[in-house]
Each structure stands twice: as structure tokens, then as C-alpha cells.
Automatic annotation (TrEMBL):
It comes from Triticum aestivum. Residues 9-61, 62-116 form the HTH myb-type domain. The lineage of its organism: Eukaryota, Viridiplantae, Streptophyta, Embryophyta, Tracheophyta. Residues 135-181, 196-209 have a biased composition (Low complexity). The keyword DNA-binding applies. This is Uncharacterized protein. The gene is LOC123144869.
Length: 244
DNA sequence: AACAGCTTCAACCGCCCAGTC
DNA sequence: TGACTGGGCGGTTGAAGCTGT
């Protein structure tokens, strides 16, 4: 089967988006929506392929995007869900309102993965050479309504302070672990968790929307995912209770 | 001050899957 | 039923910025 290339390369622009292109794209989507990504750039007069437009919109221009550093709660959530699901970035992103899969992926590879790796090593060789530093680069490029000045200050660690006012659901806040503590799954976790899941099965588990997110995804395909996420969150509650 | 090395992140690539004809 | 299309996802890349020497 001959598959057409995702977009004709000829004459299409690549690379960083200009503010003008951003404005054009946003204006077009606000006016017409994005029912057809492939046709969109032509309709909007953009010399970009549809995929590129989609990516730009999803990862950067969407009005509900939350920019700026990740809160420690968000980081914890990523670590925890990643521990269960692996590199299911879109699924993880669905649990973090305003965050994109791409952003989460980047944070994972640049911060969290190293953090976990270093924590698993013998103490002493852990810390990255440098502290996290700059504000989000591109956020400053786009003076959009949702771009907020990255709240980082020199020397700010990767467990970012949040100026967003956003906080994760209390289930995470109650885990009793500070942001610097690493999440670990031990045997007691699974025994407690599985026991609990047996109890709760069929008895109306809490909404799968543990983070207060409406992922918008049809439940059928995400049932399994939701199950594990919910399971995990409940287990977190168990652990926090046991620490009281 | 200049340079090299490192880090970050926006953007691209290619594959897969679901929907449509 | 199979071909085809469009959208979505995860992995990777490379330019820009930052830090250390």
C-alpha cells in the first residue's frame, strides 16, 4: 500500500513558528474550528502542513494550555502515573489539565527520569550538575493570553514553585511525601491495593477523573487505564492513612 | 570575555489505528 | 472486505540558551 506523505514538502515552511503564523492559526481556528487539519493550512493561508498546525495548536496555542514550570504535585503525578503506565504520554497528559503530552514527555526526559535514576544510585552521585534554571523559552516568545511569566528564579530547583494557583487533587497532596521524596512501589503497596480493588470492584469506585479532569475520552478505551489510575490513587490514600 | 559543553524544549518524523468509502 | 485517509501518539532531533572553566 502506497501511503501518501503526511504533507507535501514542496513549498511548505518548517521550523519555528512566527508570531504572525501563530496569530493566523489561532484566528482561523477560533473562527472555523479545526475539523480538518490537512485542509486547514490552505484555508488559513499558512504555508505549513496540517500536522504541523495541529501540533502547534495542541502543544502551544490552545487557550487552555497552562505554561510555566510544573508544580511538585504535577511532577509527582507524572512519576506515579508513569510508573504504572509507562510512556503513555497522552494518557498522562489527560490527567494533568493544561499540560500537553509533549511537555510532559520533555519534563520526564529532562527532569524526572534523571531524578529517579539518580535516586536509585548510591547516594553521592546523584545530583545533576546544574539546577534547573531558565523560564520556559518559548513562553516569552508568545505574548499570549495564557502565557504566564515563568515563575522560576535563578537557582530554582526542578521541583518548581507554582505560581499558577493550580493544585492537584488532594489525593496526591495527602500522600505524605514531600516533592523530593521518590515514589516507590513495594509489596505492601500491591497487597493493599489489590485487596482494596477487590473490595471496591462493582461497588462504585470514585470517578475515574481523579484529578478533576474531564479527559473527554470515551470511557471504553480508557477503562483499563482509568482502573489503574484510580487504583493507584486509592493506594496513595491508603499509604497516607497508614502514615498518620 | 570567550569558549566549550550541557540542558531544555519546540518541532519534526514515522508509525499505528480508527473511520470512511 | 480491502484500500485509503486523517488524526494521534511516541521517539528523536537540533537550535537556542545557560553554566562552568
Amino acid at each position: 500500500m502506497v501511503r501518501a506523505p503526511c504533507c507535501e514538502k514542496m513549498g511548505l515552511k518548517r521550523g519555528p513558528w512566527t508570531a504572525e503564523e501563530d496569530m493566523t492559526l489561532v484566528a482561523h481556528i477560533e473562527q472555523h474550528g479545526h475539523s480538518n487539519w490537512r485542509a486547514l493550512p490552505k484555508q488559513a493561508g499558512l504555508l505549513r502542513c496540517g500536522k504541523s498546525c495541529r501540533l502547534r495548536w495542541i502543544n502551544y496555542l490552545r487557550p487552555d494550555i497552562k505554561r510555566g514550570n510544573f508544580t511538585s504535585d504535577e511532577e509527582e503525578a507524572i512519576i506515579q502515573v508513569h510508573a504504572m503506565l509507562g510512556n503513555r504520554w497522552s494518557t498522562i497528559a489527560a490527567r494533568l489539565p493544561g499540560r500537553t503530552d509533549n511537555e510532559i514527555k520533555n519534563v520526564w526526559h529532562t527532569h524526572l527520569k534523571k531524578r529517579l535514576e539518580s535516586s536509585s544510585k548510591p547516594s553521592g552521585q546523584a545530583a545533576p550538575k546544574r539546577k534547573a534554571k531558565k523560564p520556559a523559552v518559548a513562553a516569552s516568545a508568545l505574548e499570549g493570553p495564557t502565557s504566564e511569566p515563568a515563575s522560576s528564579s535563578p537557582g530554582q530547583s526542578l521541583s518548581t514553585s507554582s505560581a499558577t494557583g493550580y493544585s492537584m487533587a488532594s489525593s496526591l497532596e495527602n500522600t505524605g511525601s514531600s516533592s523530593s521524596e521518590e515514589f516507590q512501589i513495594d509489596d505492601s503497596f500491591w497487597s493493599e491495593t489489590l485487596a482494596m480493588s477487590a473490595d471496591s470492584s462493582g461497588s462504585g469506585m470514585e470517578s475515574s477523573d481523579t484529578f478533576g479532569v474531564d479527559s473527554g475520552a470515551p470511557s471504553s478505551s480508557n477503562d483499563e487505564m482509568d482502573f489503574w489510575v484510580t487504583l493507584f490513587m486509592q493506594a496513595s490514600d491508603i499509604q497516607s492513612l497508614s502514615q498518620i
